[in-house]
# Entry
Amino acid sequence: MSDHTTSQTIREVASALKGRFRGEILRPGDPGFPEAKSIWNGMVARTPGIILRCDNANDVQAAVLISAGVGAPTAVRCGGHSLAGFSTCEGGVVIDLSRMRHIDIDESKRRARVGGGCLLGTIDTATQRVGLAYPAGVVSHTGAAGLILGGGTGWLTRMYGLSCDNVESVQLVCADGSLVLATERKNADLFWALRGGGGNFGVVTEFGLRLHPCTSVLLCTAWTLCDNVQPLLRHWRDNAPQLPDELKWNISLTVAPDSPEIPQQLRGCPAASESIVWFGDEERGHRYLDSILKVGDRVGVSRKMISFLTLQTMADADFPHGARYYTKSGYFYVLEDRSIDLMLAALAEIPSRKNQIELAFLGGAAGRIRASETAFGDRCAPFILNLLGHWSDPHDDAANITWVRNLFRALRPHMKKGVYVNFMSGDENDRVSEAYHDSWNRLLEVKKKYDPTNFFRLNQNITEFSTARTSAPYGSQSRDA
Ligand SMILES: Cc1cc2nc3c(=O)[nH]c(=O)nc-3n(C[C@H](O)[C@H](O)[C@H](O)COP(=O)(O)OP(=O)(O)OC[C@H]3O[C@@H](n4cnc5c(N)ncnc54)[C@H](O)[C@@H]3O)c2cc1C
# Structure
């Protein structure tokens, strides 16, 4: 589409919305537009032709019908945290849900209805008032809709499953403008696809969520200097599969920050940062921590009970809006010694102090749900790897992107085929089918039924054109379990 066609198209959208839209409409030049157009990943600087901040489902219906009618490229935005930058577009329409952050909690039934624009922090704050929690991600300024639709992992995943496993209903506006309810009984094919299939099927206006009791947790944090990280990772790899669901043990390889709360000898050094969270009886938790901490040479070990809200916000400042980010992600069945050694070699050459090699072990409740129950792709590959490049200066783009890509390329032969769609970059279209394994054809069918023209295409797109063309092959772990 040429620039001229786009601006003409946007004028048509604006004119057709007159009298049909209650929310806020922002165009380039309007006060507030520069803030409204920016998204979390500073690598993505696009200027949409119009931002439609919807107030309610009627507004979303009008936005979809009109944008689809004139063929405007359209992005959908909740929290704007798409690593790939899909929540904006150049010259097109952004359907922005940030004014739809209503939450209605039924404490006795442990259920909540939440608006399609809620952030994780919006949900946590409201549910904690009644001592309940929703299993979701670890940074409170992340949007709930994007996270839930792609799957959603976090501290409570081993206890209660993925975020999408705790969804009971989804109300959404489909590509033809209709408002549709999807549950286990109603539009069950769509309900299946929405739990893992991302934003491919429509704009979610409201989720019905299942909540769980949780107000405080036992948190242990510790650092290990680079020279001692190899035995630590082996210890983690060998023990994580045996641990109870109540325990979540994450490790991140990075450079220890130069800040007063970090022990002097660590500051500025490549190291492993551990966060071990226990949900349950405190004394039992301490016994597990004792046995985990027996092996290793850690510094700055801290153990304390903290509130669930503190847990959910403690990483917020580490991932600021507007910095530059690039990711590659994947899974291991088995974390081999040579993979650990490759990670340690990359850690020694890390080009930005904020880059991270994030490792988590899934399993638990999320791993016990049958693969066919939802569209989420990888329940049987417990070790999750996320390589996160994070820096500030555009001059450092090449060094950081290359570091992420090279490490991923080196690790790939030792990995399992598959990827979590929410951790993918914008240049990985050829991995979308890989993310869904055996569910791919079923997803294509549902997509064809609910969005036959692929109007919702600014996402990790489910189309027959997204076929796997992987340049570097997977090795022995490439079988699907
Ligand atoms: C700092 C940070 C921390 C993260 N932590 C975690 C984590 O702990 N666990 C985890 O699983 N993931 C995590 N992620 C990844 C996260 O799940 C994805 O980035 C997700 O897309 C963010 O959702 P969002 O609503 O903020 O995104 P947006 O950028 O607003 O939207 C991303 C995509 O989601 C779809 N979408 C958004 N809203 C709607 C809607 N209402 N209806 C239909 N489609 C919609 C659209 O396709 C859109 O392109 C994290 C990301 C960041 C940046």
Q: What stands out?
A: The chain has three domains: 3-96, 103-213, 216-423. The mean pLDDT is 95. The first strand starts at residue 24 and ends at 26.
